[in-house]
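Hi R.,

As promised, here are both runs. First protein below:
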Amino acid sequence: SKMINEKYFFEEKVFSKKDFVFTSEPYDEIITQILKLKKSGRVLDLGCGEGGTALALAKKGFDVTCVDLSATVLSFLKKEAITRKVPLTLLCKDLDFFEPQGSYDIILGLGVLHFLKKQRVSELFSLLKKQTSNQGIHIFEVLLEGDPSQEKTSQGYYFKKGELKEKYTDWNILFYKEFKSHDDEEHWDNHLAHIVAMKI
């Protein structure tokens, strides 16, 4: 069987399965980080997945645009937004070709950049930084080299230690950490870097 293109993994192997249960759990630490800095504004959530964080922010009055490659997860999210009576803009786009329009106050990219190649990751950072308002915030969480999900054949980009921080030397870095986080489903520890940076 041909190797599944990594970026379609969630659509083909997870979300489209008959018995998949959507939970839309928000990432509370991220919501806390945002609310300390912003009370409103335009949010771009890249690779939003089940959209728990997007839904929570929309409920608090943020204007949220979600981008994901999975049509299945977005149709679920559309229903969920209607049920919860929150507005969400949903874009079914491949981040390899996505061109953000307009200016955003907050851009989130949580556990999504390893689906892209190095060249595209660099391009995307440049694009996203341009499309960020003054005093706008980026929050990214990326996988580091040596993460157990990284295989010899992985085309995707895994960051070196300290590298995510280097991408923001021209911004104000409000928070940065490298850490391990246990993945209960895979029974392994992910190696992560997490940044909150503000455009100056």
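And here is the second one, sequence first, then its structure tokens:
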Amino acid sequence: MKRLTPEQRAFLENPYIAVVTTLRPDGSPHSTPLWVDVDDEGVSVNTAWPRTKPRNLAADPRLSLVVVDPGDPYRWIAITGTATLVEEGANEQIDRLSKKYTGREKYASHREGETRVTVRIAPTFVESRGL
């Protein structure tokens, strides 16, 4: 598993939007923007069952993530790896991400029938520019 450099981790601590790509059952890519988290365990994102991302990842855990500095498109990080889906702590994580990205203590869009899930990324390849 690849490790982030201190500069890459610091970059991901900014409230920059990530684009995550998973693979549909037919092998075609499915890309969506979302919030990204980084902690001592590594990089993760948060989504919810029964959305497309966790369904795709349950079938095929390969994914890629890219984050671009909105103020400088030549500062970016791209991570390719595999995902582990973890429900424990996912509600707390989405609230932390809400604080990071919106300033609100609680995530405002909890939906009936959804179960939050953390997508932990085990990087196999990390590249960046300007970091």
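A quick note on the second one: The chain has a mean pLDDT of 95. Let me know what you think.

Best,
J.
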